[in-house]
Amino acid sequence: MVRENINFESGGQRCEGWLYRPTSPPPHPCVVLAHGIGGIRSAALPDFAIRFAAVGIAALTFDYRHLGTSAGEPRGLIDIRRQRADDRAAISLVRRFSGIDHDRIALWGTSFGGGHVLATAGRDHDIAAAIIQNPFVDGRAAAAAAIRYARRRHGYRMAWRGIRDNLRARCGREPLRIELAGAPGSMSMLTTPDAAAGFASIMPADPVGWEPTIPARIVLQMRADRPARRANLVSCPLLVSVCDGDAIAPPQPAIEVAKHAPRGELQRYPIGHFDLFNEPWIDRVVNDQIAFLRRTLLQPHTEQR
């Protein structure tokens, strides 16, 4: 496996990433990996990309604008429309790479990135396959689930903070920030009991570009984001990896996605949101995903030859 530094433009700004190339002879299929909310490419994604490359599948990881080492101000900004534009720019990039089979591009998304993948695959019917794991696919369901860990009053306070941050942005002022993850009841984006410890568990020793606080305006976008409603538009094979004990991304909407996607497949694990990034579950999850990618990306190519 060889890791290359890459960069590309999205919305007039630079995104930086890594391309993991297999050592086997090209052309290779390629998986574009989309991280969860606030995620940076050095957190958890290499564990998947390296394993994909080891079986002959190239993998691209990158930082969204405003995050990690990519450009963009204010730092830590999370904007659904911009991030999905970044996903499309990354796909366009790998379709231009030498040594990559442009007809065998797959998407992979975790948590918030799972919703991005679902939305993107529903628009781009040249995608060969897609994987979403512990996916955030229904903002309304996630908001309802969050009430179990914080009083309804907390939701109103967070929404008001988001409104104030939007107003500050229009006036050119510094963002009003919130913690990305914190204890139940705190003024944080994610307040489930496992949120803060879960983020800590996936961080590398030197998380370059990690932003523990984010502009509050994303709160106003999340409830309205419901990519699960368009699962029927995803024409490629779709693997949905669900954590039955997920307190952050409710599992039932993801299970419904697997049912309504024309070529959906469902894998369920009796674990929480962050458990699939760590031993012993990561081995099982990655092996299931590799088996899916072999069937959808590698075997059809071998049979054609």
TrEMBL record:
<keyword id="KW-0378">Hydrolase</keyword>
<dbReference type="InterPro" id="IPR050261">
    <property type="entry name" value="FrsA_esterase"/>
</dbReference>
<dbReference type="InterPro" id="IPR029058">
    <property type="entry name" value="AB_hydrolase_fold"/>
</dbReference>
<comment type="similarity">
    <text>Belongs to the AB hydrolase superfamily.</text>
</comment>
<dbReference type="InterPro" id="IPR022742">
    <property type="entry name" value="Hydrolase_4"/>
</dbReference>
<feature type="domain" description="Serine aminopeptidase S33">
    <location>
        <begin position="26"/>
        <end position="280"/>
    </location>
</feature>
<dbReference type="Pfam" id="PF12146">
    <property type="entry name" value="Hydrolase_4"/>
</dbReference>
<keyword id="KW-0614">Plasmid</keyword>
<protein>
    <recommendedName>
        <fullName>Serine aminopeptidase S33 domain-containing protein</fullName>
    </recommendedName>
</protein>
<dbReference type="GO" id="GO:0052689">
    <property type="term" value="F:carboxylic ester hydrolase activity"/>
</dbReference>
